[in-house]
Amino acid sequence: MTTKYEQIPSSLFVKNRKKFADSLLPKSIAIFNSNDIYPVSADSTMPFQQHRDIFYLSGVDQEESILVIFPDAYLEENREILFLRETNDHIAVWEGEKLTKENAYEVSGIKTVYWLTDFDKVFKSLMYEAENVYLNKNEHYRNSVETELREDRFIRKVQADFPMHNYKRSNPILQRLRSIKEPEELALIQNACNITEKGIRRLLNFVKPGVWEYEIEAELIHEFVRNRSKGFAYTPIIASGNNANVLHYISNNMQCKDGDVILLDVGAEYANYSSDLTRTIPVSGKYSDRQKEIYNSVLRCKVEAEDRLVAGNNWYRFHKEMGEVYTSELLQLGLIDKADVQNEDPKWPAYKKYMMHGTSHHMGLDTHDYGILTDDFVENMVFTNEPGFYIPAEGFGVRIEDDYVIQSSGKPFNLMANIPITVDEIEDLMNS
């Protein structure tokens, strides 16, 4: 086994490729590349992270891999092909096990596997048979990449070598497909959420005045890794006191003081699938009256959001509706008044002073997962639900977040329903 996680049945990847192949124009070939391994300095590199698209379509979790999908290829063995870095005894000694051709078939369900050295020759013959070429660029709405990717170099080369083909985009197809999860994917995300739950329960027994934010991070990483996770699905935010008002606070280097609350935005990954959780807990094990008031207000907003994370709604409408919920809660809390609302700038409503980020994003293989925001919510999409109020003048902020699966009708299913969330649950566990 080359991975920490238990092997995923290849049937998932067979299904995913079929959905993708069914979305292509006739006589089309599509190519997907693994991510590079990125250098740090000297001979050190960052840990390898597989490109989620090639993983989604093949299950191959290894560098220097290429997947080719060509549904209309004349020879059946050319309709799905994997190209892998050839393994040998030397690589096995220095780097450990790599996929053999047999392993690759077990993982992916793809029968035709070549070593990378054969790529140029095989690819050329396939290109002469194809008319349309689907290439893969990241079109996620939050994408801002300055690094040149292996995929970018490939796109440049293939368009130079074969300028007369008709080039198409894979990413819009994958944005749609990946946003709607298969049952096997929901089980993997649920497992990531269950590992996160173990971490949170461990913390509730650990946190007390004087503990450092990085010590909390260490407790979590211990619990995650011992449950077969690679670690955090994203850089953890462990923000005590006023740090909670910095939305992407990741220093995690302050001491937690009696009387403060800690905003924990943390989630384990499992088998490349993410979880995304936020809880705001009291350092001393007991919330002050004001902290409790704000916490319960945010929790009410989260419950209101559940009623709107339903099939047929969409991301834009959902966020507009949630703006009305926040306005109403902030008026009740006295943080804004009617004049603020009457005089608000429609582009930056009054509630944005205290709640300035989105309430939901798609979640899956990426923490901010693929999904086309103008599409209606449909069954088996997975969304976060993460309202928050941030009050620098009072020295704290509160955010609460769980992950939900859209159902065919009615409320979404909460993948984190077992994780303590109410004031009473959190205080009881911290003081038990």
TrEMBL record:
Entry EC no(s) = 3.4.11.9
Residue ranges of the Aminopeptidase P N-terminal domain?
Answer: 8-144
Q: Gene3D superfamilies this protein is in?
A: Creatinase/methionine aminopeptidase superfamily (3.90.230.10), Creatinase/prolidase N-terminal domain (3.40.350.10)
Keywords of the record, alphabetical order, are:
Aminopeptidase, Hydrolase, Manganese, Metal-binding, Protease
Record-level Gene Ontology MF annotations: manganese ion binding; metalloaminopeptidase activity
Q: Which domain of life is it from?
A: Bacteria
* Pfam families xref list: AMP_N, Peptidase_M24
| GO BP terms in the entry | proteolysis
Q: Which cofactor does it need?
A: Mn(2+)
Q: State whether keyword Transferase applies.
A: no
Catalyzes what?
Answer: Release of any N-terminal amino acid, including proline, that is linked to proline, even from a dipeptide or tripeptide
Give TM segment ranges: none
PANTHER family noted in UniProt: XAA-PRO AMINOPEPTIDASE 3
| UniProt family annotation | Belongs to the peptidase M24B family.
Protein name listed in UniProt:
Xaa-Pro aminopeptidase
